[in-house]
Amino acid sequence: ENQETVYSIVGEKTLHELVDRFYQLVSEHPALSPIFPDDLTETARKQKQFLTQFLGGPSLYTEEHGHPMLRARHMPFTITPARADAWLSCMAQALKETPIDEPLRRAVFERLSYTARHMINSEDKPS
Ligand code: HEM
Predict the structure, then answer these.
(1) Whose CA is nearest to atom 22 of ligand 1?
(2) Are 20 and 43 in contact (CB under 8 A)?
(3) Measured from the CB, is residue 7 less than 6 Å from ligand 1?
(4) CA torsion sign, 41 to 48 to 99 to 34?
(5) Residue 91 Cα: closest atom of ligand 1
(6) What is the per-residue pLDDT across 32-81, written as a single tens digit (0 to 9) for each?
């Protein structure tokens, strides 16, 4: 008990600001916007739940949706290495604009990079 987690350091308010800014950037990104719904309200709500538990907070995502099985849940979408890079570039930008201090920011980004690579389920199209 009283355990310090990334979530408890970052705090709910900052985490929610991060996710809202992230999806604003996603909606403006030409490689990402085509595979996301126009209305990102529900997507952002689920991502707030997921990142809360991913960063050591309460298991909000699992309580409502069951085991995350993130790779399986992403299978309906074509996730190429370029799309993973695009996702990470939006996240890097959102993190930069959010008041999370180093070295925590870098640690969060590295964990998300690892997870994003894991979501890749398709090759980039040959040019
Ligand atoms: C859902 C794309 C990486 C967490 C989604 C959706 C898309 C998507 C299109 C569906 C949105 C909707 O219908 O509401 C991508 C792409 C990624 C990526 C292109 C690039 C690698 C990640 C990563 C995480 C993540 C790294 C976690 C850190 C989620 C969650 C959902 C979601 C929690 C909601 C799942 C649900 O419906 O319950 N993603 N994603 N995604 N993504 Fe990703």
Answers:
(1) 116
(2) no
(3) no
(4) negative
(5) 26
(6) 999 999 999 999 999 999 999 999 999 999 999 999 999 999 999 999 99
**CA separation (Å) from 66 to 7, 28, 55, 103?**
20, 30, 17, 31
Take residue 6 and report the two structure tokens written for it. 């990334």
Domains of the chain, each with CATH number or no CATH: 6-119 (1.10.490.10)
Measured from the CA of 32, which atom of ligand 1 is nearest? 19
pLDDT, the chain, mean = 96
Q: 0.90 cut: is pTM over it? A: yes
CB of 23 shorter than 6 A to ligand 1: no
| Ligand 1 centroid, distance to 100 Cα (angstroms) | 22
